[in-house]
Write a structure and sequence with these properties.
Shape of chain A: globular
Number of strands of chain B: 0
Structural class of chain B: mainly alpha
Helix content of chain A: over 70%
Strand content of chain A: under 5%
Number of helices of chain A: 20
Number of helices of chain B: 4
Radius of gyration of chain A: 21 Å
Number of domains of chain B: 1
Shape of chain B: elongated
Oligomer: heterotrimer
CATH class of chain B: Mainly Alpha
Strand order of the largest sheet of chain A: 1-2
Number of strands of chain A: 2
CATH architecture of chain B: Orthogonal Bundle
CATH topology of chain B: Helix Hairpins
Structural class of chain A: mainly alpha
Strand content of chain B: under 5%
Largest interface: A-C, 26 and 30 residues
Helix content of chain B: over 70%
Chains: A mainly alpha, B mainly alpha, C mainly alpha
Radius of gyration of chain B: 21 Å
Order of helices and strands of chain A: HHEEHHHHHHHHHHHHHHHHHH
C-alpha cells in the first residue's frame, strides 16, 4: 500500500499544508512551498496515470470500515483520473497567478488563503479518487467548508453575505437532498460502491428511482442546476484566484463530476433509460442552459457575467450526462476538462483587468485591448472555447454532444445547443469587439498590461485551451473505460475529428 | 374493593396529590411551593402505607402465638417509604436552603418579583 | 469477586464523598477525587469489556447475599455497562480538566463541598445504571438529582439559585411520579425487581393499575429526560451553573434518564405493552420531533453561548428518544450511539466554553468576537465539536445520525428522515453563528492579547475533541457495542 501512487496523490496536498502553515511568517518560502506542492502533486498524478494503465488492481486503498459493507476507500477510475489531472494541473497555474494577484492587490491573511486553497485541492483529490458515495460525500462537504474562508476572504460585509449564501445553498442541498439520497441508496441496495452499470436491481420501483434521481440531481448543489444556482453569482465577492478555483479547478467541477459519477456508476444508463423522470430533468437542464445564458447577457459586471456563463455550461454537462447516449456522456466528461480551461482563462483575464485598471464592468472595457493585448487575446480564446468554435477545445465537446443528441433524435437538446451557442456568442463577442476596436470613453491614468507572472499564467491557460483541441485523443482513450462496451464509441466517432 | 372505607385512603391520596401539585404550580411564594411539594410527597407516603395495611393485621414479628402471625401488614412498603421520607426531608432542606440564599440575593421570595428583577436586569 | 465490581463501582464514590469533607484540604481532596474517578472508570471499563465478551452478556450480584427477587439485585447487561462507562468517563475527564475552572468559578471555601456533591452525583448516576431494582432506581435518581441541584447552585450569578430551585421543583415532582408508578406496580405484583416485574407484568392483561403506573413512570422520566414539554428546567440549569457542572450534567444526567426510560419501558412493561398496546412510539415520536425542532430553532436565537448549547442539548435529546420511538434494533442502536456520541460532543463543547469563560469571564457571544486567533486550540475544538453536532462526516455525530436515518428508512418513514436532515440544517445555522463570531468577526481590542487556555485544561478537553473525530472514523465501539446492546434489549 505504501508504494501505491494513489497514496501520494492523496497525501501530498496535506503535507504541503503543513509546510505552508509552518512558513506562515516568510512569504517567499510559503509561496515556494505552494508551488512545490502543486508541482509534486501533478507529477504524482501523472505517475498514477502511468501506473494505472499497467496494473489496474493495485489502485485501491481501503481505509476503515464505517458500517457493514461500507468503507472509506479510494479507487482510481478514468473519470476520477481525468479530474485529478485537471485539478492538479490547473492548481499549478492558479498558484502562479494567485501569488501575483495576492501581492499586487495586497490582500490580507495570505497564509490562511494558501492553506485553505490547499485543503480544497486535497479534498478534490479525495473526491476524485473516492470509490464509493460515502467517501465522495465526505470530501464533497470538506470542499464546501474549506472554500468558505476563501469566498469570504475580503472579510467585509458583502463578502460575508456572499459567503453565507454560498454556504447556505451548498450545505443545505447536500445535507437535505444528497445525504438523504445516499442513505436511501444504501438502504435499498446495501452498497454505495461505484459499480459500472449501476447498483440498483432491475426490479427496483421506477417511481422510487425517479425520486432518488431528483434528490441526487438537486442535492448536488455544486452542479448549480437552476434553481440552485444562486450561490455562484453570490460567491463572486471572492478574489479572482478563488473564483477560478470555484469555477474551473474544483468546486463546480466537483459538482458535475459527482453528477456524472452518479449517472454512470450508481444508476447506470440502462436503469436511467427506464425512469420517466430522466427526460424531464433533461428539459430542466436545457432550460437552465438557456435561462442562465440570458441572465449572463443582462449582466454588466464582468465576473457576474462569467458566473452565469458557468451556470449554463454546467447544465451542459448535466444535460449531456442525462441524455445517456455514450457519445453524450463522453461529451459531458470532456466538457468538464474543456470548460475548466476556458473558464479559468476568462476569470484570470477578468482578474488581471481588475489588477491593472480596477475595472469590473463590461461597459468600461472599451479599447482596453490596446494596452492589454495579451490579456484580451487570451480572453478571446476563452470566449471562442465557450462558444464552441474551432480551434478552441470547446468545439470538441459540443461536437460530441450534438452528435449524441442527433443520434438519439433528441431535437430539444439540439435546439438548446444551437440557441445557447448563439447566446454565448452574443454575450462574449461584443466584449472582445469593444476591447479591441472601440475607442475608450475616457483615458485611464495607467495604461499597462497586468503583472508579468499573471500574464504568463493566463497565456498558459489559453495555450491549454487551444492545445486540448489538437490533443484530445488520449483523453478520449482514457474515458473509454467509462463504458461497459467501449466499442460503442469507436464505431460512432467520425473519422473527421479524430486527431 | 367495594367496601368504601377500604378505598377511602386512596381518595385521600388523590386529593392530597392534586392539592399539593396545585400549590406547587399556582403559588408564587417559594416557601409555599416547598410546602406544596411536601403535601404532594406526603400523599405518596400515605399511598404506600395504605396498600401495606391489612385489616386486623399485626406487625410481622414472630411470637409464640402462631395465630397472630397469620395476618400481618407488609413491612416492605413501610421500609421503602422510610427511605422516601428521608429523600423528601433532604429535598425540603435543600429547597429551603436555596430559598434562604435567594432571599439574600434578591431580597424577596415571591417569584413574580424575582421575575421582575430579572427583566430589569436584562434591560 | 467479579460480581462485586458492580457494587464497588457505585460504593467507591459513595464512601469517598463524605471522606472529602474530612480531608478538607483542597489539593488533597482533588487528588483523592481524581483517584476515585479513575477507579470508577477502570471498573466500569472492565465491566463493559467483561459483559460484552461473556457468554451470557449479563452479570448480577445479590446485595447482602439476599437472592433476587426478594433481595436487591445489581445487574448489568451491555446497555447498562455502556452507560456506566460513559458516566464514569465523563466524570473523570471533567475532574481532570476542572482544576483552574473550579478555582475561578466556585468560591474557595465551597470547593470541598463541590467535590462531595460531585461524587454523590456520580454515585447516583452509576447506581441507576447498575441496579436491577425499581425502587433503587428512584433512590439513586434522587441522590443524583439532589447533588445536581446543589452543584447548579454553586454558580457565580444569583440566577443560578433560581435555576437550581426550579430544577428542584420539577425534578422532585418527576421523581415522585416515578415513586407513585413504582408503588402501584408493587401493589399489584408484590415485587420490585425489574426483571421479575417484567415477567409478572407480562402475564397481566388490561389491568388499570398497570396503565396508571405506566403513565406515571413515563411522565416522571420524561421530566428527567427534559423531553418537550417538560424541558423548561434545562436551559437555565445548564447555562447558569459553573461550566464543569454544565459539562458533567449535559454529558450524563439526561442520558441516564433516557437509559432509565429505555429500561422501564422495555424490561418492566415489555416492548409489546409499551409500544403496541399503549403506542408510546407514536407519542414519543411526535414529542421527539417537536423537541428536535423546538430546541434547534430556539438555539439559533440565543446570544449566550452556554444557553445556545443548552437548547442544542434539548434538540439532541430529541434524537435519542426518536431512536427509541422507532423501536427496532437499528433505532435503539442509533439512540444508544447518539447517547454515547453526544456525551462526548456536548461535554467537549461545554469544557471548551469553560476555557473561553476562564479567559473572558463571559459567555456572551458578543464578548467572544474574534477569539479564533488568540485561542486557536480552543476555537478549533469548538469548530470540530460543532461539526460533530451538525453531523458532518468524519465526526462522531455523523455516525449516530447515519444509523438514525437508516432506522427511519427501514420503516419507510421517509418524512422522519426529512425532519432529521432539516434539523441538521438548523444546527448548521447555530453552529455557524458561533464559528462566525470566533473567526470572521474583527477581534475586540480587549480580545487581542488574550492567552490560550492553560495546558491543564486543554489536554483533557483536546482528548475529547480527538475522540470526536476518532469515533467518527473508527466506529467499532460506538456502532458495534451499541448494536450488541440493542440486540440484547430487543431480543433478536
Amino acid at each position: 500500500m505504501l508504494t501505491n501512487p494513489m497514496l501520494f496523490v492523496l497525501l501530498i496536498p496535506w503535507v504541503g499544508i503543513v509546510f505552508i502553515a509552518l512558513s506562515s511568517r516568510k512569504a517567499n518560502l510559503r509561496e515556494f512551498f505552494s508551488i512545490a506542492t502543486s508541482l509534486c502533486l501533478f507529477v504524482a498524478v501523472i505517475f498514477l496515470l502511468k501506473n494505472w494503465d499497467t496494473a489496474t488492481n493495485s489502485s485501491v486503498i481501503n481505509l476503515i470500515e464505517f458500517a457493514p459493507g461500507l468503507q472509506i476507500s479510494f479507487r482510481a477510475e478514468p473519470l476520477g483520473l481525468l479530474f485529478c489531472l485537471l485539478a492538479s494541473f490547473l492548481w499549478i497555474i492558479n498558484t502562479l497567478y494567485s501569488i501575483s494577484y495576492m501581492r499586487s492587490n495586497q490582500e490580507q491573511n495570505q497564509t490562511r488563503f494558501y492553506i485553505f486553497f490547499a485543503v480544497a485541492i486535497a479534498s478534490t483529490m479525495g473526491l476524485a479518487l473516492s470509490s464509493n458515495l460515502l467517501t465522495l460525500f465526505i470530501f464533497y462537504e470538506v470542499l464546501t467548508l474549506s472554500t468558505y474562508p476563501l469566498v469570504t476572504h475580503k472579510g467585509n460585509e458583502a463578502a460575508k453575505k456572499g459567503g453565507r449564501t454560498y454556504l447556505a445553498y451548498l450545505l443545505s442541498s447536500s445535507i437535505v437532498f444528497l445525504l438523504f439520497a445516499i442513505l436511501w441508496t444504501y438502504h435499498m441496495t446495501g452498497t454505495l460502491e461505484f459499480t459500472l452499470g449501476g447498483v440498483f436491481s432491475k426490479t427496483a420501483d421506477p417511481i422510487l428511482l425517479s425520486v432518488l434521481l431528483c434528490l441526487f440531481i438537486f442535492g448536488i448543489g455544486k452542479a448549480a442546476i437552476m434553481p440552485l444556482h444562486r450561490w455562484l453569482p453570490a460567491a463572486m465577492v471572492a478574489p479572482t484566484p478563488v473564483s477560478a478555483l470555484l469555477h474551473a479547478v474544483a468546486v463546480v467541477k466537483a459538482g458535475v463530476f459527482t453528477v456524472l459519477k452518479v449517472v454512470i456508476y450508481i444508476f447506470g444508463p440502462t436503469t436511467l433509460e427506464s425512469i420517466p423522470v430522466t427526460e424531464y430533468l433533461v428539459y430542466l437542464a436545457g432550460f437552465s442552459i438557456i435561462l442562465a445564458s440570458v441572465f449572463a447577457l443582462l449582466q454588466d459586471n464582468l465576473k457576474r457575467r462569467l458566473a452565469y456563463s458557468t451556470v449554463s455550461q454546467l447544465s451542459y454537462v448535466t444535460m449531456a450526462s442525462l441524455l445517456l447516449h455514450p457519445l453524450a456522456i463522453l461529451a459531458a466528461a470532456l466538457h468538464i476538462a474543456i470548460h475548466a480551461f476556458g473558464k479559468i482563462t476568462l476569470f484570470f483575464t477578468a482578474g488581471s483587468i481588475y489588477t491593472a485598471s480596477r475595472k469590473t464592468k463590461v461597459s468600461e472595457l472599451n479599447g482596453i485591448g490596446r494596452y492589454m493585448p495579451w490579456t484580451m487575446a487570451a480572453f478571446t480564446i476563452g470566449a471562442i472555447s465557450m462558444i464552441g468554435l474551432p480551434p478552441a477545445a470547446g468545439f470538441v465537446s459540443k461536437w460530441y454532444l450534438l452528435l449524441g443528441s442527433l443520434k438519439l433524435h433528441e431535437w430539444f437538446a439540439v435546439g438548446v445547443i444551437i440557441l445557447s451557442t448563439i447566446l454565448n456568442a452574443a454575450y462574449f463577442l461584443p466584449v472582445c469587439y469593444a476591447a479591441f476596436f472601440k475607442k475608450a470613453d475616457c483615458i485611464p491614468e495607467t495604461q499597462q498590461e497586468a503583472p508579468k507572472l499573471m500574464v504568463f499564467a493566463i497565456m498558459l491557460c489559453a495555450t491549454g485551451t487551444i492545445a486540448l483541441f489538437f490533443f484530445i485523443g488520449p483523453l478520449i482513450e482514457l474515458l473509454k473505460g467509462l463504458f461497459l462496451d467501449p466499442t460503442v464509441l469507436s464505431l460512432s466517432i467520425p473519422s473527421g475529428v479524430k486527431p | 374493593m367495594t367496601d368504601w372505607h377500604a378505598i377511602i385512603t386512596y381518595w385521600a391520596v388523590i386529593t392530597l396529590l392534586v392539592f399539593g401539585l396545585y400549590i406547587v404550580t399556582a403559588s408564587s411564594n417559594l416557601v409555599k411551593k416547598i410546602i406544596g411539594l411536601n403535601i404532594f410527597q406526603a400523599a405518596v407516603f400515605v399511598m404506600y402505607i395504605s396498600m401495606a395495611k391489612i385489616l386486623n393485621g399485626t406487625a410481622p414479628i414472630i411470637t409464640d402465638k402462631i395465630n397472630e402471625f397469620s395476618a400481618y401488614s407488609n413491612p416492605l412498603p413501610h421500609v421503602l417509604i422510610l427511605t422516601a421520607i428521608v429523600v423528601g426531608v433532604s429535598t425540603t432542606a435543600l429547597g429551603l436552603a436555596l430559598i434562604v440564599r435567594i432571599k439574600q440575593s434578591y431580597n424577596t421570595i415571591e417569584e413574580t418579583e424575582i421575575r421582575q428583577q430579572e427583566q430589569t436586569e436584562k434591560e | 469477586m467479579l460480581n462485586q465490581l458492580i457494587v464497588l463501582q457505585v460504593v467507591i464514590p459513595l464512601i469517598a464523598a463524605p471522606l472529602c469533607i474530612i480531608l478538607s484540604n483542597a489539593k488533597l481532596v482533588r487528588a483523592f477525587v481524581i483517584f476515585v474517578c479513575t477507579a470508577s472508570f477502570s471498573i466500569s471499563a472492565y465491566l463493559l469489556y467483561f459483559v460484552s465478551t461473556s457468554t451470557t452478556k449479563t452479570i448480577s450480584y445479590a446485595l447482602g447475599g439476599w437472592a433476587a427477587p426478594f433481595g436487591i439485585e445489581y445487574r448489568m447487561d451491555i446497555m447498562s455497562a455502556l452507560i456506566g462507562l460513559i458516566v464514569s468517563f465523563i466524570a473523570l475527564i471533567v475532574i481532570l480538566y476542572g482544576k483552574r475552572s473550579i478555582l475561578q468559578e466556585i468560591p474557595e471555601k465551597k470547593i470541598t463541598l463541590f467535590y462531595t456533591a460531585f461524587l454523590l452525583c456520580l454515585t447516583g448516576l452509576l447506581g441507576i445504571t447498575a441496579t436491577g431494582d425499581a425502587f433503587n432506581v428512584f433512590v439513586f435518581l434522587e441522590i443524583s438529582s439532589l447533588a445536581s441541584y446543589a452543584l447548579i447552585s454553586l454558580g457565580k450569578s444569583r440566577a443560578c439559585l433560581l435555576a437550581a430551585f426550579r430544577y428542584l421543583i420539577m425534578g422532585t415532582v418527576g421523581a415522585t411520579f416515578i415513586l407513585i408508578g413504582i408503588g402501584l406496580l408493587y401493589a399489584h405484583t408484590g415485587t420490585l425487581n425489574i426483571y421479575d416485574l417484567g415477567e409478572k407484568v407480562a402475564k397481566l392483561h388490561d389491568i388499570r393499575t398497570i396503565y396508571v403506573a405506566y403513565a406515571f413512570i413515563v411522565i416522571g422520566l420524561a421530566i428527567k429526560v427534559a423531553l418537550f414539554p417538560f424541558h423548561l428546567w434545562l436551559p437555565k440549569a445548564y447555562s447558569e451553573s459553573p461550566t464543569v457542572v454544565s459539562a458533567f450534567l449535559a454529558g450524563t444526567a439526561t442520558k441516564v434518564a433516557i437509559y432509565a426510560l429505555i429500561r422501564f419501558t422495555t424490561a418492566i412493561f415489555g416492548i409489546k405493552f409499551s409500544f403496541t398496546t399503549l403506542q408510546l412510539d407514536v407519542i414519543l415520536l411526535v414529542l421527539s420531533i417537536i423537541t428536535i425542532l423546538y430546541g434547534s430553532l430556539v438555539a439559533i436565537f440565543q446570544t449566550d453561548i452556554k444557553r445556545l448549547m443548552a437548547y442544542s442539548s434539548i434538540a439532541q435529546i430529541g434524537y435519542m428518544t426518536l431512536g427509541l420511538s422507532l423501536i427496532s434494533v437499528l433505532g435503539l442502536q442509533a439512540s444508544l450511539a447518539h447517547i454515547f456520541n453526544h456525551a462526548i460532543i456536548k461535554t467537549s463543547l461545554f469544557l471548551l466554553i469553560g476555557c473561553l469563560v476562564l479567559r473572558m469571564s463571559s459567555s456572551k457571544l458578543s464578548d467572544l468576537q474574534g477569539l479564533g486567533k488568540a485561542m486557536p486550540f480552543t476555537s478549533a475544538g469548538i469548530v470540530i465539536g460543532g461539526f460533530s453536532l451538525i453531523g458532518i462526516p468524519l465526526t462522531a455525530g455523523f455516525v449516530s445520525k447515519w444509523y438514525l436515518v437508516l432506522a427511519a428508512l427501514e420503516q419507510n418513514q421517509w418524512w422522519i428522515v426529512a425532519v432529521i436532515l432539516f434539523a441538521s440544517l438548523l444546527a448548521v445555522v447555530y453552529v455557524w453563528k458561533i464559528i462566525e463570531v470566533l473567526y470572521f468577526k474583527p477581534a475586540k481590542e480587549t480580545n487581542v492579547a488574550v492567552k490560550e487556555a492553560p495546558l491543564s485544561m486543554l489536554i483533557p478537553v483536546m482528548f475529547l475533541v480527538f475522540l470526536n473525530i476518532y469515533f467518527g472514523i473508527e466506529t467499532s465501539l460506538n456502532a458495534g457495542i451499541t448494536k450488541a446492546a440493542a440486540m440484547q434489549i430487543i431480543g433478536s
